[in-house]
User: Fold Signal peptidase complex catalytic subunit SEC11 from Zizania palustris.
Amino acid sequence: MLVQIVSLGMIVTSALIIWKGLIVVTGSESPVVVVLTGSMEPGFKRGDILFLHMSKDPIRTGEIVGREIPIVHRVIKVHEHQESAEVDILTKGDNNLEDDRFLYAHGQLWLQQHHIMGRAVGFLQYVGWVTIFKVCLFFLNTPIDLEIKQWLPFIVHSDRCTGLTGHI
Assistant:
């Protein structure tokens, strides 16, 4: 029994070290995200995993960026302030009819650079379904799962994750 507990502890510790290492290497608070809805179809489907990297380069229209809650959508407008070098960013899911302003904080019309967690630099198809099934079927209470669960009303029907009620 003690050997099993130590082994489990080593696995969890290794996973945390790898996660923290990815954060340092990519410069992103969330270097790996799962596409939870069909909002980015046809390019990215529900269950795909995207890899994010944060760089100092200016964000440009057409890039796919990750932000809080984890939402990964395309930049559709960038407004650069010449006097302050600040940038306003507007995002939209490729499969959504409207931009993402309804997802921003109340009264917020644009995202700023500090809202962006990274740019998509690669992806794996279907691997994220493990996370979706785990959250939808088991409702494990890790901090990541709790963050995702707050968005479940937008993501799934009451029939345990088999369909979409809307796009994020």
